[in-house]
Amino acid sequence: MIFHTTQLPGLLLIEPEEVHDTRGFFARTFCAEEFHAHELPTAFPQCNLSFNHKRGTLRGMHFQKAPHEELKLVRCTQGAVWDVVIDLRPDSPAYMQHLGFELTAQNRYQLVVPKGCAHGFQTLCDHTELFYMMSDPFAPGFGAGVRYNDPAFGIAWPLPVAVISERDAEYPDFQPPSP
C-alpha cells in the first residue's frame, strides 16, 4: 500500500500496490503493521455499506460529535464517487478547508478520514457502493453534519444533485464554535 499525505492533516489517500501475474493481480487493502506505522487504528469494530441506486446521489456531510468522533477508512467497491472531506477541527491549520477525490471500483483507492472531519460523497454513476471501516461504533445522538452546499465551504460538486435525504439538504449554515 502506498500512503499519500494531503493538505488536510491526517487525511490520507491509500493506493493499492498491485502485484500482477497471468491470473490477474493481488493487493493488500489493510495491514495492521503498516497502519500502526502510520499511527492509524489497527482494529475496526464496525463496518458499513452504502449502496446508492442513482447517479448524482449525494450523502453528507456527516461526522460524529465529541466524545464519539470516528476515523473512517472508505473505499468504493462498485461504481464511482466524488468523495469530499471537510476539516472541522478548530485547532487544525486546515480548519474549514476541504478536499475531494475520485474513488472508483477501478482505481481501488481508499481514504482515511480523520476524527473531527465531515465526510460525504456524490455518486458518479448508477449502482454505486461504498465500504466503510470505522474506528469506533456509531453512537446514537452524536451524529451531526454540515450542509453539502454551505457557502462557508464552497464545495464544487461534479453533478446536479439527483437524490439527497431531507436531513442532509436542511442542515443549517455552519457556525464555527465560539472561542
Blueprint (SSEs and pairs):
Blueprint: E1 2-5, E2 12-15, E3 19-21, E4 24-26, H1 32-37, E5 46-52, E6 58-64, E7 72-78, E8 80-87, E9 98-104, E10 110-113, E11 117-123, E12 128-134, E13 143-145, H2 166-169
Antiparallel strand pairs: 1-2, 2-10, 3-4, 5-12, 6-11, 6-13, 7-10, 7-12, 8-9, 8-11
Supply the CATH architecture: Sandwich
Overall shape: globular
Residues in β-strands, percent: 35-45%
Q: For the record, what is the CATH homologous superfamily label?
A: Jelly Rolls
The parts where pLDDT drops under 50 for at least 5 residues are: none
Strand order of the largest sheet: 1-2-10-7-12-5
The value of Rg in angstroms is 16 Å
End-to-end distance, in Å? 40 Å
| Fold-level CATH name | Jelly Rolls
Characterization of this structure:
By secondary structure, this protein is mainly β. The protein has a single domain, classed as Jelly Rolls (Sandwich). The protein is about 5% helix and about 40% strand. The protein has helices at about 30-35, 165-170, and strands at about 1-5, 10-15, 20, 25, 45-50, 60-65, 70-80, 80-85, 100-105, 110-115, 115-125, 130-135, 145. A six-stranded antiparallel beta sheet has the order 1-2-10-7-12-5, with no helix packed on it. Strand 1 (about 1-5) and strand 2 (about 10-15) form a beta hairpin.
Describe this protein with a few key phrases:
mainly beta, single chain, 2 helices, Jelly Rolls, 5-stranded antiparallel β-sheet, 40% strand, 6-stranded antiparallel β-sheet, 179 residues
